[in-house]
Design brief:
By secondary structure, the protein is an all-alpha fold. The protein contains ten helices and no strands.
């Protein structure tokens, strides 16, 4: 880990501590009721009353998020490759993708729950829909970013479309794909939580919904903090994987 990375982490940690301290002081000085805004200390105490409750819910939500992200990733890459090999289809495919992107997931999630039940499948589909578009767009831009000179050189050597895709376009698309994952991976957790709000037997979304229905804000904020913390770690994991996959492009973070 280089000096700049350490400085960035220290600065972020300091800002977070200051924000939580300001929140704590503000709530105590204003005597804000706990049912409106609990103090961070109250939220922390609530979490430690039964941490296993939140960790078990997190495990369920993480499973749904990973399933949805995997499905959205495979679908996005697959469609991007298809459009690259069949450029005539780009207009129609991108129009359909935009329609999927513009659909309000908060309205689709209840329908999927009605059609598919309260199991894992509706949550995975919602998460996949949320992560599909950024993966598709970034991967497609990367696959199409090859210079004309590079393509001409491969044509001179009689490379097929698949060979061009494998030896040139795929490598050019790799940075774009990881840029998409930096956004899509944390979003997958949010998608799973949103899907759980419409009906689930377990998961952090259900924890939030039960706390909201009972106006019990400390557990609600505890679940939010768990989601936020894990989302940060997921983002950092994507950055680490990017460094490992492309060590020639970025400085080492070991």
């Amino acid at each position: 880990m280089n000096a700049k990375t350490k400085l960035d982490i220290s600065s972020a940690a300091l800002l977070l501590v200051l924000a939580l301290l300001g929140w704590e002081v503000g709530v105590r000085l204003s005597r804000t009721p706990v049912y409106l805004l609990p103090a961070p200390s109250r939220i922390w105490a609530t979490f430690w009353l039964d941490p296993l409750y939140y960790l078990q819910a997190l495990w369920v939500t993480l499973g749904e998020a990973v399933g949805g992200l995997t499905l959205g990733l495979l679908a996005g890459i697959g469609v991007a490759v298809w459009v690259t090999l069949q450029p005539r289809l780009e207009g129609g495919v991108m129009t359909l993708a935009l329609l999927i992107k513009s659909m309000p997931l908060a309205a689709i999630a209840p329908l999927l729950t009605i059609w598919l039940g309260f199991g894992v499948l509706p949550k995975v589909i919602i998460t996949a829909l949320l992560t599909f578009f950024p993966v598709l767009v970034n991967t497609l831009v990367g696959l199409q970013s090859a210079d004309a000179e590079m393509l001409d050189l491969l044509r001179v050597h009689r490379a097929t479309a698949w060979q061009t895709l494998r030896h040139l376009r795929a490598w050019l698309a790799l940075p774009y794909l990881f840029a998409a994952l930096r956004v899509a991976a944390p979003l997958s957790l949010m998608g799973a939580v949103i899907a759980e709000w419409t009906g689930a037997g377990s998961g952090l979304g259900r924890v939030m919904w039960l706390a909201y229905a009972n106006l019990n804000l400390p557990p609600l904020f505890a679940a939010i903090f768990v989601v936020s913390t894990v989302s940060i770690f997921i983002y950092l994991l994507m950055v680490w994987l990017e460094h490992k996959a492309m060590p020639w492009r970025t400085p080492s973070v070991d």
